[in-house]
Specification:
alpha/beta; Rossmann fold; 2 domains; six-stranded mixed beta sheet; three-stranded antiparallel beta sheet; 16 helices; elongated
Amino acid sequence: MQTPEIAIIGHPNEGKSSVLSTLAEDDSVRISPTPGETRECRTFPVIIDGQAVLQFTDTPGFQNPGRILAELKKLNGNSDSLLEQLKRFTASSPDLKDDHELLLPVTRGAGVIYVVDGARPLRNVDRAEMEILRLIGRPRMAVINCKNDDFQFLDSWKDELRKHFNSSRVFNAHRATYAERIELLEALKAIDQDWYKLLADIVSAFRQDWEARTRISADSICSLLSDCLGFQLRKDLPAEHGVARLEQQLLQQYTAAVIKKEQRAHQQIRALFKHNIFDYQLPPHSILREDLFNQKTWQLLGLTKKQLLLLGGIGGAAVGAGVDVAALGHGLGLFTALGGTVGFLGALLGRDNLTTEASFLGLKIAGQQIQIGPINNISLMFVLINRAFLYFQHTINWAHGRRDYPDHDTKDQRTDLQGFTSNWSAQNLKTCNSFFKAVHKKSIDREPEIVSAMQQLLFSEFMKISQDER
C-alpha cells in the first residue's frame, strides 16, 4: 500500500518548512528566513515502529499564481485531467519551474496543507493561490501560521479561507505543543470523506506511539531514581590529617556522579522525542539551568512542609535522621549563609555528624573506610522527579520547527514556581516512600510491584503534561 502523502504548499517565506518540521517531528528540515530557499520537493516520512505511516512533502513557494490560474481556467476535465494538463503547461516554461515542482506531489495524489502567514494582510496573489488549489480538487486544509503575535488580519484570512478549503486551523509552528499538533492531525481527518478512515488510523498510531515513548520515559526516570537513591562511594581512610580533604573529595565526586546520571536520563528523553540535530536549549530562566544541588532548586522543587509531615506519618525514617523537618520542608534551614554544593552539603553533614548513624547523604566512617551514600533523605527523590517533569515538559513542547527562543520567552511553562509534586495526594507520597525504602533496603529487585507502581505514577503524570493538564 502506498504511504499517504501530504504536500505543504504556499507562498514563499510563509513558514511551510516550519509547519512540516513540527508536524513530522523532524528537526532535519531546512528552515531559512530567506524567501525561496526551497527549490525542490523533499519528502519527510513519519516512522512508527519502523514503518512509514505518513509522509509530508516540502515544496517551493508559488511564484506565478496569476499565470497558473489564468491557464487553469481555460482547461476542462476532471481533477486528474486538469492536473496533467497543468503539469504539461508548467513544464513547458523555465519561468514556471518552481510552480511545476510544487505541483508534482499533488499530481501523484497528495493531499494539501496550504500555509499562510496570518500576521500580514490578505493579497490578491493569495486569493489566486487558494483558487488554484480549489479548482484542482485535491483534499485540502489551510493552516494560518501567525509568525508573530499580530492577529489583526486573522478574521479576514478566516473568511477568505472558508470559501476555498474544507478546513482551516490557526497553528503556530514555533510554539505548538504536543496537544496542538494532535489537534491539527485530528482536523486533517475531515478534509475528505475518502481519507477519513486512513487518517483516523494514522492519528491513532501517533497516539499509541506517543504513549509508548512516554512509558519508556517513565521507566527511564524510575531507573534514574533507583540508581541515584542507592548510589554510594567508599574510600580508604588516609592519615588523620587528610580526612577532611577526603570528605570534601567524596562529596564532590558524589554530587558530580548524580548530576551525570540525571543528565543521561534527560538525554534519553530528548532522543525519544526526536530532538536529534538542532541544539535544543532550555529557556534562559528555567530552574533546570540551576545545579541539581543548588539552593534555589531545592527550595522550589523539593518537598513542602505539609508533605514532609505526611511522610513522617507514613514512615518518618525516610525524611532523614538529624535533619530538622520544618526547616527542610521550607527549604531555607539547609542553605542559610551557604554557597555552592560542597558548602551546602558540608555544612549540612558537618564533621561532628560523621558517626555510624546515617546523615543526609549517608556519610559515615566505618572501620578503615569512609562512605557516602546511599542517601537517607527522600527529598532528593522529589527534586529529581520534578526536574524530570520539567525537562519532559520543555522537550515535548519544543516544536521541531523552532530554532531558538525569542528574548521574551524566558519563563518556565509552569509558572506557579512550585514542583509538579507539590499537590500530590497522600497515596502518591506513599508510593514514593515505598519505592525509597525498597531502594534503601536493597530489596527493589525483589519487589516488582513497588517498581511497577512507581513507573505507573510517573507515566500518568507525564501523560497529564502531554495533554496540557498541568
